[in-house]
User: What shape does this take?
Amino acid sequence: MLNHGNSILVVDDEPDILTLLEYNLKKAGYRVLLAKDGPEAIELAVARVPSLVLLDIMLPDMEGTEVLKRLKESKSTRAIPVIMLTAKGEEIDRIVGFELGAEDYITKPFSPRELLLRVRAVLNRVTDAGRQPDAASSGDAVTFRELSLDLSRHRVMVSGVVVALSSTEFKLLKELLAARGRVLSRDAILDRAWGRDCFVTPRTVDTHVRRLRAKLGPAGEYIETIRGTGYRFKED
Assistant: This one.
């Protein structure tokens, strides 16, 4: 199936990787942008605003984590989903990527088929998060104390101040709010917020919840940890 309208920015300093990814992404119907280093990647992301970024961590001059940080700090690029692509496979590297706002993490070597499935899964999550949810067809916001979740505008506010969330963080908060007072296991949260075709582990939920709490400030305390099980949004 072709993916007209979706453009992928690939950032890697290895020509062979760029060639491989460009070929497979174009074959799948995506438009492809290429960057060999961090500054070029940031410039392209700002100018072209791609649908998704495939970002290698080990880059010359500026590491991929710094590129990711700058993309998420900029208003014009913070909503672009990022998949980290790297030869590093240690858990700490994955955690750093998720903490900075990455949607997914792929370790080299990888199969082109797996990469395409992950790209599609992330783009589907972003699309689903931006759709009008069934529970709020009127576009009304869901509120809890000082926290307001505008489902139609895909916007979160705490005490009247807009909080910038990634598509996954927004969907995670929406699902926790929808199940207010009930405990959701990590597996249940993965199914609801990531989808059944996700490629992340249940522990990824912990990282995203931690980041979500930090962004929500005092309102983050409404998300309770149920030890050994999962999470629950306060009932009252």
